[in-house]
Every structure is written in structure tokens, then in C-alpha cells.
Amino acid sequence: MRTHETDDGMGWTPTWTQAMTDFRGEDDEPPFDDVTVRMTVPASIGGSGVRVELSNRFGDGPVRIARGAVGVGGRFVEISVDGQSSIEIAAGASRWTDPVDLTVSHGDEIVVDLYLPESTPYTSANGFTLDRSLPGDFVGSREFPLEGPTPVEATTNTGTEPDPDPDGTGWSLPPGGPFLRTVEVAGAEARAVVVCLGASSTAMGWPQYTAALLPADAGIAVLNRGIAGNRIRLDAPRTNPSWGRAGLSRFDEDVLATRGVTHLVIAYNSNDWSLPGRITPKDEMPTFAQLIDGYRELVDRARTAGLTVLLTTVTPLAPDIAGDPGREGLRVAVNEWIRTSGYEFVDFDAAIRSEADPSLLEDAYAAPDHTHPNINGSKRLARAMAETLARLQ
Description:
- This protein is α+β, with helices and mostly antiparallel strands.
- It has two domains: 12-149 and 177-184; 191-392, Rossmann fold, CATH 3.40.50.1110.
- Helices cover 22% and strands 23% of the residues.
- It contains nine helices and 19 strands.
- It has helices at 200-203, 206-213, 247-256, 271-274, 288-304, 319-322, 325-340, 348-352, 375-392; strands at residues 12-17, 21-22, 35-42, 50-55, 63-65, 67-72, 75-78, 87-89, 94-96, 109-116, 124-126, 131-132, 177-178, 180-186, 192-198, 220-226, 263-267, 308-312, 345-346.
- It has a five-stranded antiparallel beta sheet, with no helix packed on it.
- Strand 6 (67-72) and strand 7 form a beta hairpin.
- Helix 2 crosses helix 9 and helix 3 (247-256) packs parallel to helix 5.
- It is globular, with a radius of gyration of 20 Å.
- It starts with 11 loop residues before the first strand and ends with a helix.
- InterPro entries: GDSL_Rv0518-like, SGNH_hydro, SGNH_hydro_sf.
């Protein structure tokens, strides 16, 4: 299919996204003040022009970006909004940049630089890694002087470069950062636009790996709308706002509002029933029926909008949680329902669980916490998803 055209007649298709979430009250990142932020993200589909969506969804006040640029292959083009290079985004709003003439190919790394001249809180954001400059405007600079390591010292391998962790046993941590919600390309022949809605295991990058595995001529955009800590039924607790609004709450914004979306992957892990009584109040523990009602509502809303829906089974919990019969029983029951419900599904559980003990992750696929997939595990999930997406075309 060709995605529908906007008023400018250029026919825009999203090539990369992230789900914006609320980092107010979190202390992972200090405010920005006279620094340039550089975010390097992978293109899942190519095109002949670029524009980006900048979001201040959770800000308490306006954000001022004095200057910005987008680059591919070392060539940078300055961005503007309504012809103005200085961009102000009101609290709760987002703004699209004017189109820039920049060719993007499948698998390219797209660089977005934003110069923030005044104290700006880290509020509307996602992703695990970004680059901060030393003080000053370094937009489009080939020599980007780093302030220092980001809180998580890792970068995502999107399948186009060697792994930063050669044996693949480290954390799979994708790039992202503040205010950048969407990158779109013009003139793409998109057969499918796949939105992946989920929690931490999704946020950690298997959608990007999936996109990298698909051939360039597949015409499939694979978009990550995962949020670490996210749940299907309940919004984040006040103590952890960055876990985001529930999948049911953000569905319209993060799925239906995605331009040209054709497919939805519902890829949640176990937060709905692993957090209550441990990190959130015990009375938030759902019943099996409530969990299935949540899945069914997501499926029904997607199908009503004409989307093709895929579910993924839930991968194993950490050993101390898997040892709780109630929680592990819910995981097993949810997976059995997914496998027998008649819906199309991808068996993530079978892909990375231990053969010796199916309640645990296979060591080769487990991150250090033995709850999340490592780089190898994320790539294994991506292979399973890519095989299914190829078959559905």
C-alpha cells in the first residue's frame, strides 16, 4: 500500500518512532542548558525527504530549540518550523518540522541534533542512550565533543554495524532521547506500517532489529512504541511516571495516530502481574479474566480501525518471580490463551526460554537481570517476528 498523503502532497511514512513518556520526577538525566543533544536512530524504510515530529507532551512549560539539524551519511540539513530555525513547542504540544531534501535508505542511521540554549528539563522522552555535547551549539558538527557517558553506557546495534558488545550478552539498549517522537520519510512505497506496542522488552529494541533483518525492498516500516515498565491495564504509579500511561490509555495516540499504520503487534511482558505486591500496591493484581479482557479490548479497537493484529507470548520472569506459583501461573495461562485464541501470534516465549526449565530464560538470551533479553535475545525475537511479517505479506 502507499500511505495516504498529507496536505503538502508528499506522501509521508514513519520510518522511526518512540513512545513519549513522562520523565518529570525522574533523576536519570539532568536538565539541558547550553548543550546540543544528538540522537542517532535507524531508518526502517527509505525515502526521498525527511521531517521530524518534536514533542513536549509532558512538559510543564514551553521548550525552545534554538537550532536543529537532521543528517544522513555525514550530510546535515538544518530544520525549521514554518520557515523559522528557532522552534518553540508549547507544553503538551508537538510540532512537525518543515520537509528537508535528504535521501534515506533502509538501514541508514538518521542523526537528529537539537541545540537547547537555556535550562530545559528532561521531560518528554524515551530511549536509553543519547549524546550530550560540551557547552555550546554543535548542531551538524562532524566533531561532536561529548560531555561524558550517558547514564547507561551502551548503544544500540540496529543490525547494520558490529555489536558494541561482541558476544551479545550485554543489555540491548536502543537510542532515543528527549522531544524526538517521530521521523518520517517522503515518497516511500510502504506495503506495511507495523506498530509494536509493549513494555520494556519491546522498548529494548527487537522492533529495530526486525526492521534491519527485513530486505530493503520489503517495504515494511517497523515502529517501536514500547515503554519500560508499561502495563496494559493501569497507568504508571506516581512514583514512577516514566512507566507511562497504560496501553489501553495511550492506544489512540501511539497506535491509531501513527500515519499509515496497517499492523499492530501487542507485545507486553509481565508488568501487569509481576509489579503488584512487589513495587506497586498488591490490590493492583489483576485476575486472569481482567488480563484477557485487556488484550481483547486492544485487539478489538485495532480491528475496528482495520488493522491486522499479532500477539506475542510472554517471556519468562526472573527466577525469584518465576518461583511464585501465582505469578508464573498467570504467565502460563496468558500464553496458553494467546496460543489457542485463534489470533495470529509470534511465540516469543518459545524463542528464548530455557529448554531445561521453561519457566526461565535461556542463559544465552538473558540480560544480567534474567528478566529481559540481552542483545542476542532481542535479535532472536526479531528473527521470529521478521519470519512472521514476511509470511503475512
